[in-house]
Design a protein that fits this description.
The structure is a single chain. This protein is an alpha+beta fold. It is built from twelve helices and twelve strands. The strands form three sheets. A five-stranded antiparallel sheet has the order 4-5-8-6-7. Strand 11 and strand 12 form a beta hairpin. It is globular, with a radius of gyration of 19 Å.
Length: 263
């Protein structure tokens, strides 16, 4: 990677101004995945002076600074209490502790990686992203547009909820990227997200709608939900797995997940 200029900024205004100058100017997160997506950087912008590595607990939500490491989030007792600890569980599946000490939540979110184990978990939680310019944006809106990539992410805000949850990552080895991953939460309604299929994470809206209108979740209903999910999911082939294998995985773990959150 070729980096021409590096600046540790003193303010969000300065970071945003530098970022907007060129598409080749980039914000530095933890740096764990930087080489996977960027080859040439004109100006690398560090937010290290802006105290974004903290996890703050408020009355109704937790606010995670964009530079908080994945490891700090994984073991934080307040985050472990959110939705059955689904975010901590998802993070614990990522590489080894050395990488999780380096990678940040901001870099992981802004990277929008198709292999992300974090994004499915966040998608089924009540999450807002707090930007410098665009202010508050929900995660689904952020993922549907590239407009927010030219902004400075400050915090990830998660509403306090304690719903039943399920998370599953399937990979060829513990240190490999996911073949498929799935996250489910269930309180008053089902929330289901799937990633590494091999595209970017998506909410299974049709599947969720079908399940959420049911009075009782039976084995037959679960089978029908699996059929809908496989049709709805953007499953495909890549070097890690075939579409047919992914279909089998989705059916298997969606069944297990629905039963786990409804038992």
């Amino acid at each position: 990677m070729n980096i021409k200029t590096y600046t540790a900024v003193d303010s969000f205004d300065e970071a945003y101004r530098l970022l907007k100058k060129s598409k080749k100017n980039k914000i530095l997160g933890g740096g764990a995945w930087l080489k996977l997506s960027i080859k040439e950087v004109d100006h690398l912008i560090s937010l290290e002076k802006l105290s974004l590595d903290q996890i703050q607990v408020n009355k109704d939500y937790l606010e995670i600074g964009a530079l908080a490491s994945l490891r700090d989030i994984e073991i934080n007792k307040d985050i472990l209490s959110l939705d059955g600890g689904i975010l901590s569980q998802a993070i614990s599946n990522i590489m080894g502790i050395t990488i999780r000490n380096l990678a940040t939540i901001g870099g992981s979110v802004m990277g929008r990686f198709s292999f992300s184990d974090i994004l499915p978990a966040l998608m089924v939680m009540d999450v807002e992203l707090v930007f410098h310019h665009h202010k508050i944006v929900d995660l689904k809106t952020f993922l549907s547009s590239r407009d927010y990539l030219l902004d400075v992410l400050k915090y990830i805000r998660i509403k306090k909820q304690d719903r039943r949850s399920f998370f599953k990552k399937v990979s060829n080895t513990p240190l490999d990227f996911s073949i498929i991953n799935m996250a489910i939460t269930k309180g008053d309604r089902f929330n289901i997200a799937i990633g590494s299929q091999p595209g970017l994470v998506m909410l299974l809206e049709e599947t969720m709608g079908f399940l959420n209108k049911q009075v009782k979740i039976t084995d037959q209903i679960i089978e029908e939900a699996c059929d809908i999910a496989i049709k709805e999911s953007n499953l495909g082939n890549n070097i890690r797995a075939s579409k047919a294998y992914r279909e089998t995985l989705v059916r298997t773990y969606l069944k297990r997940g629905i039963k786990q959150v409804t038992s």
